[in-house]
Each structure stands twice: as C-alpha cells, then as structure tokens.
Amino acid sequence: MLSHIHIRNFAIVDQLDLDFTAGLTVLTGETGTGKSILIDALGLVLGDRADSDMVRHGSARAEISATFELNDAPQAAAWLRANELDEDSRSNECQLRRTITKEGRSKAYINGRPTTLQMVRELGEQLVDIHGQHEHQSLVKRDEQRRLLDHYADHKTVLSEVASTFRAWQKINHEFEILNEAARSRDQQMALLRHQTEELKELNLTTSGLRLLEDEHKRLANADQLINTYQSALQTLDDDNNAIAPQLHHITAQLQPLLESDPQLATVVEMVSSAAIQVDEATHELRQQFNRLALDPQRLSEVEQQLSEIHDAARKHRVRPKELPDHYLTLCDELTSLDNADATLDQLEIEIAAKAAHYQKLANKLRSGRLRAAKKLNKLVSANMHKLGMPGGAFEISVIPRADEKFTVHGTEQIEFLVKTNPNQAAKALKKVASGGELSRISLAIQVITSQQGGIPTLIFDEVDVGIGGRVAEIVGQKLRELGTSRQVLCVTHLPQVAALGHHHLQVKKHLSDNDVMTQVQALDETARNEEIARMLGGIDITAQTRAHAGEMVNKAQQRP
Fold this sequence. Notes:
This protein is α/β, with parallel strands linked by helices. Among the domains are: 1-127 and 456-474 and 482-545, P-loop containing nucleotide triphosphate hydrolases (Rossmann fold); 187-339, no CATH class. The protein is built from 20 helices and 15 strands. Strands 2-1-4-5-6-7 form a 6-stranded antiparallel β-sheet. The longest helix is centred in the middle third of the chain and has 47 residues, at 341-387. The mean pLDDT is 82.
C-alpha cells in the first residue's frame, strides 16, 4: 500500500509530505482548492504523461516521490526481483520517483535507479488502481466494457494465451497470403529466374575470378610497355658487366679478404652481400614475369569480351560487377523457393489449421469464463443499482459470438453492457438508456465490485460520486468504507455523507500570500474533522445545529467496521 508521498514544486504545491495508512482515507476541501492535485501527482509518479505546465511557476523542476509497502503486493515484489530493481532482498518497501523540468523533460526512477516510463507503468499497475472522476464517460465504450468484464473475471493467463495464439495465427496467414499471391504469377517468375540464372552461370563468375580477369586485362593491355620496361630493368640489373648484380658481387669479393685486417668491415660486407642477394632474387622474379609476357591480341580480345559481358550483366541487374556472384546466389535461392512453393503452401495450410484450432479452443475457454463472470457481475451490479437509488434497474452483460466469426486478439465475441432503469423496460445499450447521473451511479457500482478483484492493494476514487446525494451518497460511502477494510482506499469527495465514513480525513486548503498561490494538505483530528463535515453540510454559515449534525454523522460512521 501507499505509505508516503513527497511533492515539491508541483502545480500550486510548494512542498508537501503526507503519510498514509490502511483503510478509507477521504480528501475534502472547498471547490477550487486543488483536491485532485494529489491524485494527479500520484498518477504522474506512476507513469502518466508529463507536461511543463505541471512545474510550479518560478521553479526549475517539479519532483514527486511515492513510497509503497510491499507486504500486501507480492506480485509487485516479484516484478521488482525479476527486473533486478529490488533495493534490498530484506526490504518490504519500494520507492517511485519522477522529476519534470520547466522545459518539459522528465525522468523516472524505481528505487533510485533510472528507468523507462513503460517499466514504471508496469509496476504501477500492480500497486495502484485509479478511478477518475470522468471514468463513467468511458463506460459506454465497448472496449472499456470488455476490459472491465475481463478484469472482474481475472483470467489474465487465458487472455494472454488467446492474444499470443492469435498473433501467431495471423503471422502464418500473412506468410501464406504472400506466398500464395506469388504463386499466381509463379510460372512467369520462374521462367525469368531460370533465364537470369543460366545467363549469369555462363559467366562462371566468382569474386576472386573477376579480380584475376581484371588483372589479366591490365597486363595484356599494357604488354608492349611492360616488355620494354622489363628488358631495360633486367639489363640494368644483370645483363652486362656494369649491371648492378655483378658489381655488388664484385664489391663483396673485394671486401671479404679485408675482414681480418679490419673486423669493423663485417657490417658493411653483410649489408652489401644482403643487397646482392636481394637484387638476385628480384632479377629472378622479374625474369619470370618477363618470360610470361607476350603480345597476345587474341587473348586480349577474349578478356575484353568477357569483361564487357560482365559489365552488361551488372547494368542489366542493377548491381556492381563485383556484386554479381552474390546476386546470382540470391536468384538461385528465389528459384528454389518458388520450386518448393507448393510444398511450403501445403505445410503452411496445415500450420494455419492447427493454430486456428488451438485459438478456437482458447477462445471458447475465454468465452466460458466471460459468461460465468457476466452472470455474477449482473447480479452484483443490479443489487448495487437498487441500493444506489435505482430500485427498478437491472444490469446485463451481453456476451455474443461475432456474426462474422472473425478471430481477434481479444477473442471471438462482442461484449456489451445493457441496462434497464425501470422494471417494464427491455434492456438496452447503456449509452442509450442511462442519464448522466444514472451512468455515474452504475459506473460506481461496477468500480466498487470490480475493484475487489485482483491483488492491487491501493484503490483511488477521484470524485466518482458526482451527481449523487442524500441516502444514496451515504450508501456509496458505506461501500467505500467496506472496501477499505480489505484494501487501502483514497477518495476525493465533495459529499459529507461519504467524508464522514472515512477511517482517516485529509483536508485540502488553498492559501494566497504575496500574490502567490499554494495548496496545503493536512490530516484532521476529531474536532477539525467535525468542523470540515459541518462546512460541507452548511456552507458559509455554520450553525451549532450543523456542527451537531456533523458530529452525529462522524460518530455514527465510526461505529461501523
């Protein structure tokens, strides 16, 4: 559960530190004091979208941190361990922190470690469930209706299996459609590919072969110049008495006998001898190259023809010449794939049928779970509608297979909430029957019931009691208090009947000073609480009778569990 929240420079909050305990905590205050700021701040630290307008005027940065005890949140504790974000294996606490700069940049932290908003949201969904003051408006949407039913049914595993099986079935279908479409023009494609591969095969190309062919062309094209140059070089190196090689050998022979007289000549002799050996080896290699050279116009023409064919093929296939060998292999693979297309299509059809059968089995299981949950939810919501001032009303969830039997990621049926507000009416779609006030009460009835499902330890209701009052308001407060016996519940309310039923009471006030606006939140003791309930009952003029009534309401409420 939420144990502490720290807020600094957020909206009109300068600095705020609040401790929370189990049970129902109500937040009240006059209109415009910013009662929902605390909920907004908590939503932000749980991963809601940040905005630079959230930073208090004149401040560089807003900061919100929330501390949660994990004794009642085993799933969240397991998530932290799985993601290696548990601060201490012996600790039963977790801290979420969020900062927003005046430029709109934000950072999120879990137990002091920077993390992504997605991870914050994943963790937050296991810690807090927030019901906004306008949530009843989304109740008319079918997607939200399906989500609420599935949340109440608490069948996350089968939902996940249905979704993953649907995506696998969808993927194989996509592969089949692509291959089947290609198969329609397969004969033409195969004829073209066979022609292209045979044409490239005749070139007998490899990357190294192309390089050798280009080198040979350079030699043949420049053979005349190479021959003359080689001849001149050989003559200079070794072909007469004044050539370099004989001269080096002669110098070595002259210096060798002098080593006994001057040992320091040894280095010189070694260097000249080494040079002679190098020149001999160079001469030998050059002579071999020279002997292989020949003026061969016919071979030059053949090589030029081969290179021309290679460059023509490269232009035709829109690749560089050196890429032709790999391109040839790619075309061969495409041809093989088309050759095997029939077998592949048959195999894909088998896999599609298997996935479809598995999906249908899971979808049927999901439908059974939804029908069971709908039956229970119908009775509970209808009973709550009666208590909430709609005695002739009835709630009904329609779980109908799709007419087109189309597979979807959410199953094969359509979910729709139906309601009748009078006993003689037929049940109709929620958005066509319920008025704004009735919709708010029906939404609250559903929220209180569905909130009891799952293991989320902290539930927040932000003015969900809009549009109700009197006896109905007291019943709403009783239900929230009842919920607070097993969960931590925070409720922002403007109704004294609901506020009186809280286990704890926080008051929100707005202060003006030096042209500045600040919101403060303080926990109320018994005396202050009676005064706040009296204000909510009597408005500006609070009489002794109003205070007595407020005290009676609080005393009566505190006698409840």
